[in-house]
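Before relying on records like the one below, remember that each one covers exactly one chain. Contacts with other chains, cofactors or solvent are not represented anywhere in the record.
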Amino acid sequence: MGINKEGLTGVIITPCQKEYEEARQEWNRAVQKFPVIIVFCSQTSDIQNAVRFARRHGLGIRIRSGGHHYQGYSTGNGVLVIDVSPMKDIHLSDSEKYVVMEGGVRNREVYNYLGEKGYPFPGGTCPTVGAAGYTLGGGWGYSSRFLGLGCDSLKALEMVNYEGKVLNADENCNPDLFWALRGAGGGNFGVVTSLTFKLPPPITAVTLVVLEYTKPGLEEMAGFLEVWQKWLVNLDPRITINASMYNSPEEGLGIFGRGLFYGSAQEAAVILKPFERDGAVLNYRELSFFQAMEIIQSTYPEYEKFQSAGRFVHRMYGAEERRKIVTLIKKRAEGSVYAAVSVYALGGKVREISPVSTAYFYRNASYIMGIQSVWEDDCYEESNRRWLYPRFQYLKGLTEGSYINFPYNRLPVYEKEYYGGNVCRLKQTESRYDPIHVFSFPQAVR
């Protein structure tokens, strides 16, 4: 028996259609959920109709743009998925001081549009990540220390609320909602349909930085972590990089990092000099911002199966702690094709904003530390998840707070972990803008 779709507009996909299997998939293919309806929305009215339909029929709602939620909270079993990926309009404002984009625009499309005009953008690294979801979670990327987080350039939003009404939010209109959507908006409060960002100044070139260590042992990896944490102190804000200390079947132990420097290759080489140790290979290429992001994005796979999590680091680690951290990946889970502890530089512009000025709370952290395991065969899924849990627990004891864009489904008090001292204000905002919890998922603000 088919589903009564009366009242819905847009492209409607249900389980009885041949398109359903592809339409339900997330980027993390370890997530296998079965929504009852997927609505691909091309305009705001499609979203409004979907919200009202779901409420009439008692269906849960999930919001999807790029489909990159690591825990798969942009879909679910038996829910209605509002997929805004067809909403691709992007344009400069009349003054050319702002870029306005619809909720379905992805990183690749932002970079293509702005790169051709000579503008950088504080976006993410994976090409198919939705710019909206990335920004609403704060938004770490290779420009963060120089241009700020993605949410720091955000100047206004348009959103469909729980009643299917359109709301606008900026510093003057619904300012509490605007505050909340900058760091806690992914899936909460409503469906964001449009985002307006302040453009950074145009630039002619950046330096793409790549660093690699060939065949490091665990001692060398611990030494890298020592250099890393000291290097971040008083670091030039023009550079943002991340690095992964990894273990793979083909290569064994390794270290790979990359990022952007808003300056010349010669200057970048001076800044990265502390990493020039035995076995280190560093490479610097001066390119347009657009070219650099094309290279970075080309390295991402079409999809993966993985479990990961990310935490905020606020202090230096001693020798024993560093050894224990790198030892976490000494042995991979059964069936794992890649295991890593990764570090993502913070500071710079990120730290210049107060932790309570936006919902993104952990602005004083030195860096993000993530842990992940990747597998290919479904039969190894559980062994990889079991591998990650005790290692995450160890890192949790060394860190303070979890990054909402690197979520983990086994956080017992997740709101405190994601939002720190901003939890109470977020709960008040949620009760005002979604009082009956229409927009709900396993780690929603409540």
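Residues 90-202+423-433 form a domain with the Uridine Diphospho-n-acetylenolpyruvylglucosamine Reductase; domain 3 fold (CATH 3.30.465.10).
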